Amino acid sequence: MKHRVVVIGAGFAGLQTVLGLKGADCQITLIDQRNHHLFQPLLYQVATTLLATSDIAWPIRALLHDRDDVTTLLGTVEGVDRTAREVVLRSGTRVPFDTLVIATGARHAYFGKDAWEADAPGLKTLEDATTIRRRMLLAFERAELTEDEAERQALLTFTVIGAGPTGVELVGILAELAHRILPREFRHIDTRKARILLIEAGPRILPAFSDELSGYAKAALEKSGVEVMTGHPVTECTWDGITVAGQIIPARTTIWAAGVQASRAKDWLAAEGDRAGRVMVGDDLTVPGDPNIFVLGDTAHVISDGKPVPGVAPAAKQQGVYAARTIVARLRGQPKPAPFRYRHMGNLATIGRNAAVIEYGRFKMRGWLAWWVWGIAHIYFLIGARSRLFVSLSWLWVFLSGQNSARLITQKETLKETEREK
Ligand SMILES: Cc1cc2nc3c(=O)[nH]c(=O)nc-3n(C[C@H](O)[C@H](O)[C@H](O)COP(=O)(O)OP(=O)(O)OC[C@H]3O[C@@H](n4cnc5c(N)ncnc54)[C@H](O)[C@@H]3O)c2cc1C
């Protein structure tokens, strides 16, 4: 029987592992709870109506159609039986493995306030993006209908909690939508009066960037009409609004971009984890004492050059490449590769449609040229010619026409939203 490799998660790390195992003498099973691989860095553009869902996600089966050595399973993993060497799915199915690769990513962290999730959705999946898009667009529609001035103002107030790249990117496009694209389409409201707030508990926005670029991003956002509040954590969050710095801000749309927590892999393995729930792995990305179990990407706590590796896509991909190389070396009886080393590819974030900030060591770039570099890098990392063409054309269309084309209100209303509509 061939060596059985089971990979859980078809995100950046898991998919890269499978791609790296091409031609290896093993049988691979790839399990994911969704049927698609998702390019999370552009999720905010789906949420803010710039791109359609199919522009940034691809069916896993289609991606691997020419790989006879790979079986793809749609299922949610709920545990790992380390003694029996089996992965346990929610359906009860057990999938045996000789080598296991866990790359199940991260989810939102509400820092103990899990009840906030319903009123302040985070952005992690396509469903999250379309939920945010629906709530945002519905808020404008309801503001157009209502006769109640206070309600209208609450509907036209949008708060984003957390000012890392995702929060900054969301408010940047939201401001353009409200202040430049929508005004000519509504008759009873002036969407330019929409209040867009970016709230950050820390002292400044984009904390991973230098003071200089963080200051530039703040000034650029304020120029586009975003209110930036730093140094104040949100203390309450409900359907009606948020409380920050002792002030109640009525707002019908709140988006959470403040924190992530690793998937539950630590519990499945009964392994040691860090504060974010990531599994502590060795410099070969395996769980201490179990060299046949790898944990990668956002779910792993990896140290490289004395520092924890950040939870970003290039790090996850590099770990996938490394895990595949290690498995191939073992199968061929070759010496194991040198310890994993992370190569940092720089920090990037966009501010609206015309500016970005990029930092790579001492190299810094900002403004429209940085936006183009950011855009080319993202187009390059998309999968397949179709997506590259469609995303490039969508951006070109938005640039030339000033119209965001993916402004569809879809999905079933949640109970709370329906109640509000009555
Ligand atoms: C909104 C957003 C914007 C981002 N922007 C950037 C950016 O600009 N640049 C950058 O470098 N990084 C960015 N990131 C971070 C980057 O996307 C992650 O670091 C990267 O996706 C991690 O890869 P991964 O393979 O560890 O996990 P993921 O890509 O999250 O993949 C995990 C996979 O595991 C599956 N899974 C999870 N649990 C289970 C289960 N129990 N059973 C079966 N399957 C399961 C999921 O469905 C998913 O397919 C962003 C993230 C988000 C959310």
TrEMBL record:
It catalyses: a quinone + NADH + H(+) = a quinol + NAD(+). Residues 4-320 form the FAD/NAD(P)-binding domain. Keywords: FAD, Flavoprotein, Membrane, NAD, Oxidoreductase, Transmembrane, Transmembrane helix. It is an enzyme of class 1 (oxidoreductase). Pfam families: Pyr_redox_2. The chain crosses the membrane at residues 368-385. Coiled coil: none annotated. One of its GO terms (molecular function) is NADH dehydrogenase (quinone) (non-electrogenic) activity. Its EC number is 1.6.5.9. InterPro entries: FAD/NAD-bd_sf, FAD/NAD-binding_dom, NDH-2. Belongs to the NADH dehydrogenase family. This is NADH:ubiquinone reductase (non-electrogenic). It comes from Paracoccus laeviglucosivorans.
